[in-house]
User: Fold this.
Amino acid sequence: MTTSPDLPRVVIVGFGFGGLAAIKRLVKMPVRVTVVDRHNYHSFLALVYQVAAAEVESTDIAYPVRSILRRKPNVEFVLAEVQGVDLDKKVVLTDRDPISYDYLILAPGSVPYTFGIPGAKENAFPLTSVPHALNLRNHILSCFEEAVHEPDAERRRAALTFVIVGGGPTGVEFAGALTELIRGPLIKDYRTLDIRETRVVLLEAMGTLLPALFEKGRSYALDLLRKRGVDVRLNTPAERVTPDAVTLKDGTVIATRTVVWTAGVQGDPRFKASGLPTMRNGQVTVLPTLQVPDHPEAYVVGDLAYVPQDGGCVPMVASGAVQEATVASFNILRQIQGKEPQVFHYKDPGMMVAIGRNAGVASLPLQVVPVRLNFTGFLAWAAWLAVHLFLLIGFRNRVLVMLSWSWDYFFFERAVRLIVPCRDAGI
Ligand SMILES: Cc1cc2nc3c(=O)[nH]c(=O)nc-3n(C[C@H](O)[C@H](O)[C@H](O)COP(=O)(O)OP(=O)(O)OC[C@H]3O[C@@H](n4cnc5c(N)ncnc54)[C@H](O)[C@@H]3O)c2cc1C
Assistant:
């Protein structure tokens, strides 16, 4: 593949699921590609909660961008923070130099959304990136270290209380994994602590966990988490978060040093500020071809895109980002060839949630007939493990993750329990 400067330049914002899928297609096309990301690695977000729960190492679920691009001569990488786009001038604005484009694929994912709940933005721990997960893991382990030396029972209980806000897949998966971490390795490590003083609370504002799943799967997840010791509270929105407590709508105050936010995400407000048409949650409304209205050279894919489909919209999941990025890339090629871009149709690959050891919920559509295969328990858990192992990037990562999972499964141990806070340079 030549990299002639005469070739059209495609700029991709974000090297996540959408960005990676776009590159896989564009690498074979007569274009120059520039991909911009604030991180120099691709993150497999589906396993981010396992980093926070000390189940796998952060390096096992991330892959260096430059390694992926090593044999892709028509793709260059820019490590930069994207601050917006100027659609009229066809320029991406970054904290480095502006980057001009002929075609644009915006795939920057989403950012946490706290519904304006006082204190949530300042005091809750987000869980949408590898740095978030590392930060949370350090904090959880530090809470145990502090609790060991805390003579005051009330303050000790607050340090050992972990509140997760949001009963969607991430909240449910993290609640299961955190409970296993505490009741397995941590309680063995901190022999002087009383397990009865530890608490994992899962708050959900609606009347059910996992609202996108089938009825039996939802009640299975609820019963299982409660059986494993998670204090699940439905119809219980958080109303205020402080560094030391979370206040619930009914006035209850739970003393805690740790509120984990998994309740919502939104489109990065900087794209709305750039003049892109957005929904209330900041997602950019695109045409059925994934183009930005009045800007046929600009595409939005993945979590940032609001793509209407069959009376609803494409969900914010990895498969949506991958499918959209693939179609956007082909549409760019069609435009270069003077053809009309094609309309996007989402194919639902189903949904799986792992709730902890031997327990999962899966809902998979059968492709030939309009029927879904819904199942729970060991089989759903095993299917989740197999699919996520397969989707991970890199043979080394797959081996290391499988090793960590096996170690955990057979020995009830977590290999990764280091507290490694990051700090700036300086002596
Ligand atoms: C904890 C968690 C668990 C999940 N589990 C699942 C799951 O099990 N199954 C599933 O299907 N989906 C899951 N999802 C959702 C799925 O990860 C997203 O739908 C998918 O990643 C969206 O792809 P994307 O390409 O839009 O964005 P992402 O994959 O999020 O990639 C965005 C990229 O853009 C970069 N970026 C963002 N903003 C900027 C900026 N301003 N400047 C420079 N770079 C920027 C980021 O660093 C990132 O690399 C999960 C999400 C989270 C957070």
About this structure: The chain has a mean pLDDT of 95. The CA atoms of residues 182 and 234 lie 23 Å apart. The first helix runs from residue 17 to 26. The longest strand covers residues 359-365.
